[in-house]
Fold:
Amino acid sequence: MIRVLQLLTATELGGGPRQVYHLVRRLSRDEFSVCVGGPENPRYREHLGALGVELAPIAVDTLRGFPLTLRRTLRLIRTLRADVIHTHGKGAGVYGRWAARIAGVPAVHTFHGIHYEGYSRVGRRVYLALERSLAHLTHTVINVSASQEAEALALGVSRPGRSAVVVNGIDVDELDRCSSWDRKALGLPAGAPVLGCVARFDPVKRHEVLLRALKRIAPRHPQLRLLLVGGGPEEERIERLGVELAIPQGRIIFAGAIGWTTHPYGAMNLYVTASAKEGLPLAPLEAMASRLPVIASDIPGHREVVAHGETGLLVAPQDDKALAEAIESLLDDGERRARMGRAGRERVLREFAIGPMVETTAEIYRAAVVRPERQR
Structure:
């Protein structure tokens, strides 16, 4: 039995924690025993508990607690007698990999996107220097896309021979079983075309580009609505921007964070995202699995998801005019939307199934546990 500690920087119901949940749910119980460590979150604890998996509360989301947090992480590893540590996020990656080295346990780290552009010049240097040093403490660095791996290798935060691509997988069967959001309950007029975006309110997601695109096309499409799903620190600023842009009240719906037993995609006609950077985003994949065409900013993470002209459209980043034109081209062509929606679902089933993600990760755990230095 291989004992795995999944260590998370955040446990809100977002992309990284959700991928860990699916990984934990699908790993063979005959071969793997899993515990999850991360900040206390009752909803996440409930979801894990339904799988018979424990959430060990430990706050690894800040470096301010050093060295106490390092000692707590080390104690958790030893208490669980973990054979391998799998870390997710910056804080977990720091404490988990340091503690794993002290405990003599192999560490695996997943980059769910490499985000450092918002730091100061000094902050970038410090972050990259730290990640480069941590790469030498890591048995395998997992990247969620080929483009992200290329970036990680170029930056030196991943090493040749110690790097792997494990593409995010979607559990399409589970998604199909989820109940779809009720358009009427959301205040959406019957028959109104709806643009949707599921993302945390964070500067990198560029929600403001969506609002400016909406302002451009709203006069020609008086029934058009924009459904924004998620929570985060930028939400109030985006709400204020809607007022500043004089977008009529009711045209933008702020629906709050999404749960895991329902999904919002059935309430949408088009999925739109203007992110400035992504590793390999889950929400566009879920939208495609739900037969929605996707219009996305033309960045590496989106290029690996959206087949331009086949499953959706890619537009220049931060170009609200190009985004508006792409939206209108599909709003006015229902047959093309349906064709792209079908192609998107087929692409997800073919290239982003959850089974390969789980099995590839399991192979990495097996390789880490039997490495020669541990045998000695």
